[in-house]
Task: structure prediction
Amino acid sequence: MRRRNLQLDAQGRLRHLLTIEGLKRQQIVDILDTAESFIGVGDQPVRKIPLLRGKTVVNLFFEASTRTLTTFELAAKRLSADVLKININTSATVKGESLLDMLRNLEAMHCDMFVVRHGDSGAAHLIAQHVAPHISVVNAGDGRHAHPTQALLDMFTIRQQKGEFAPLTVAIVGDILHSRVARSQIHALTTLGVSELRVVAPRTLVPEAVSGLGVHVFHDLHEGLRDADVVIMLRLQKERMQGAMLPSEHEYFHTFGLTEDSLAVAKPDAIVMHPGPINRCVEISSEVADGPQSVILQQVSNGIAVRMAVMSMVLGRAPVDEEAR
Amino acid sequence: MRRRNLQLDAQGRLRHLLTIEGLKRQQIVDILDTAESFIGVGDQPVRKIPLLRGKTVVNLFFEASTRTLTTFELAAKRLSADVLKININTSATVKGESLLDMLRNLEAMHCDMFVVRHGDSGAAHLIAQHVAPHISVVNAGDGRHAHPTQALLDMFTIRQQKGEFAPLTVAIVGDILHSRVARSQIHALTTLGVSELRVVAPRTLVPEAVSGLGVHVFHDLHEGLRDADVVIMLRLQKERMQGAMLPSEHEYFHTFGLTEDSLAVAKPDAIVMHPGPINRCVEISSEVADGPQSVILQQVSNGIAVRMAVMSMVLGRAPVDEEAR
Amino acid sequence: MRRRNLQLDAQGRLRHLLTIEGLKRQQIVDILDTAESFIGVGDQPVRKIPLLRGKTVVNLFFEASTRTLTTFELAAKRLSADVLKININTSATVKGESLLDMLRNLEAMHCDMFVVRHGDSGAAHLIAQHVAPHISVVNAGDGRHAHPTQALLDMFTIRQQKGEFAPLTVAIVGDILHSRVARSQIHALTTLGVSELRVVAPRTLVPEAVSGLGVHVFHDLHEGLRDADVVIMLRLQKERMQGAMLPSEHEYFHTFGLTEDSLAVAKPDAIVMHPGPINRCVEISSEVADGPQSVILQQVSNGIAVRMAVMSMVLGRAPVDEEAR
Result:
């Protein structure tokens, strides 16, 4: 209970973004609406607005990342914030300074936001529990737990392509077990109220708890994709899997990889999504990834706008907020 | 003689900041006063002033550092300067380019300031001796020699907490021998004229020359702390110590670590300082580090303002300077 | 044919800068003239113009570099662009993402320019063939093929020092075989029409094709330098040489190193150039490198202005362009 509400202030406004779980439908819609207002910024000749001028955003990435790190950096710069990238490995942490001491120091330097990626589930929550009142924490992925900005940009993309959530059948395909992305997507799609939500995966890659979330589980790709409006492929997290949960990449592609053939059983106007980076010929064929139904690159574009929205909202300076005052 | 004056221009104004040694009382006070004018910037919604807009500050860190590097980067960005971080290890130096050639090149690129951290004592002086007339050098720590911006932010914090230096008894505790911080603090405190200046350390960690600086040496923690107004704990520089100068960390903490017990012999309103990062349960207990007498995080905050002051003064653009013209 | 024209748009204007080869004389002169207009920026108190404000420049360096990377970063910042440095090694590439997928993603993030350095000849061309219409590619050195901005800053420096190209005798000395710099210089000097162009190198370090380019080949340093107006020394690319093409560095310096003695056979007002970083006592003596005829550091300064010119021209926003509209 306390964990869920940690990200809201006393007035129920977003102070941190740690997880989709516990957000109300209207809160998610507010974020998507705010992101909508930032979409135009990427197309303007001068892609910069002064909303966070003089604010300092600190990227605390304990796990390697290019895409997510880059989109947060770009989003912050386009809001005119100063961006600090703390190199965790080669830094004072090695000298024996604990993580919390490092955070205390960054707070004392009048930083405003920590964007946290960490291999341990709950890391962003832990940090949010300990930061000073003027700091906002944004979870950029923690262990197998959550990746809320990814789920939000996915929702943004679905709404952009399909308009309404209510009539949709959405299939999430792949390594559900290890995927923080899937977990956040499931919470978002459930809250936004899609017609049917399916997960499609080998038995070894579905967590037992998933059926309690109102999700239909399929172990056959064709059955799972039949008449779907939205197909979300997950990245095969090779580096997270240990032991013999899967026979081979080739075998996986044969049974769960998305190809033109398997996509044909979905609705003719189904869209194909993937959080990236894609493993071609492992979870998706190049024909589909680069084909007309793919919205994978739109997801990337939308990711900037969604992160601009989250960053400006948690710092209480979103255009929507300003109006409301 | 030449070394001391290297940091002043013909009019006696600060051109480089290399060491506290040789600075006059009024020069130190001027820096503290200028820093005072920057303290407000950290509390403003827009933490940015255009004093160094269009200037290029180069961070040349030959030693790993997070905190000092980050504070210099933040200070420069809040003054609106462009900041270059030269990655010394993975860079052209390895290709055989000598340090001085690299500096020549950065000068030719119209950079304005080199912030230098180096493991060798005298490195910043050496660089200052060779730079072009339009370049300022700021020493961010050289070997065992000096760390002047740290000492200045410590003086700022003491003045902020205690008002006057004259009546104060100040105890510096720990590894005096290896500490560039202690060396710079001793020069600053002597110049600013405290009532009594003590160093407290095991015999093996006190340099012989220290008694010539007007400092009282104590080898017993309780004696050294008795009735002190200011207690400055040093970081135990484990990585700098070789051989068996110390029995063990546990033993060190037992005899020289600051705890609530040992702090009780100082004045009731004594403040506790530490340059960070702290080694909890080695030189200081968590109760004291996080307790009401600790001003450790204020030191970090003040570090931004003091570095903004130094950077703007050496480039001749401090607000105080502008007025004087 | 296609490769040469790839860098021009339908109106013959510069869209990418990939190679000097295929550029018309007037196009090179336009770049030099534009750079001329930026030279003043480096001397102004505020070294910043808003020409590329809101644009995002991505430095994609697959090879280690300090100087070139730094000058591109500085040039972009002085044009007020946002700069992203993608750390290629520690990034998603390792996770199996192909280069082209990474580029697609950066495009989707609304980046505007890729500055590419790569160990493979043709890498920048390959990238330029695949980028979206709104992206410009600047080659910052590809394998042994080309380093066009280096050649342009060299031409700028020659014109600055000598005024006209037509009457000049220019000698390029050193490892021609492995040098992308030499290749680009030869194309530039030939197009700009110098009186005589010489390459001076051991037989093992001259490519066979070079004589077809209208170049006179010398294997004796003194003969090659006789009455030269411009002497361009190349860096001995030790890391690129395998096997026993050269006896030893000492022997190389003895026969092909530029010293005061060997320079004496050139014209008395000959200028000495080097792309840096220099190997002192391998290809050049310190007396010459630091002597009155050396313009090596001017090359570095000019490099900022030339890169500002190229960056603003490929994005269609050079001051010269603006006027023409």
The longest strand of chain B covers residues 136-142. Residues 90-96, 320-325 of chain B have pLDDT under 50 and may be disordered. The CA atoms of residues 226 and 265 of chain B lie 5 Å apart. The domain at 2-145+301-318 of chain B is CATH 3.40.50.1370 (Rossmann fold).
